Amino acid sequence: MPKPEFAYVTYIETTPDKLWDALTKSAFTRQYWFDTELQSDWKVGSPLALVMGGKTTDTGEILEADRPRRLAYTFKHVLDEDMRKEPVTKVVFTLEAHGKIVKLTVTHEGFGAGSKLLDGISKGWPAILSGLKSLLETGKAVTIPPAALGIDGFE
């Protein structure tokens, strides 16, 4: 049986370079990712930390950084006790330019059976990516209340 995997595709009217910056620079991520800072130097092998409200929520390691085409990193949730016990997963962003738009494909894989993390990211990624698209196309991220996501402990 194949591993459970999350995949999401969206089309954003922007350039690959602007999208790359929005995925990797905290000045952008704080606007659409529930005030989360992504801290890394984005070099292969470097650490990654997702910091929300001063607390590190997730950690990882940069696996691939091919600006502005492909970004991959490991992902390990560190706050929730149950999710801390789950295996390290992998997030991959693929950016493909098509004229005035960029096709963004996000995959998140490597979950164990019955993964609580898979349930959470399956609700969180669509909201995060909706905010990203809105920010790049209009200059303002759509505000999605955390309660709308239905994620336990995230309100």
Automatic annotation (TrEMBL):
Pfam families: AHSA1 (PF08327). Coiled coil: none annotated. InterPro entries: ASHA1/2-like_C (IPR013538), START-like_dom_sf (IPR023393). Residues 14-137 form the Activator of Hsp90 ATPase homologue 1/2-like C-terminal domain. Transmembrane segments: none annotated. Belongs to the AHA1 family. This is ATPase.
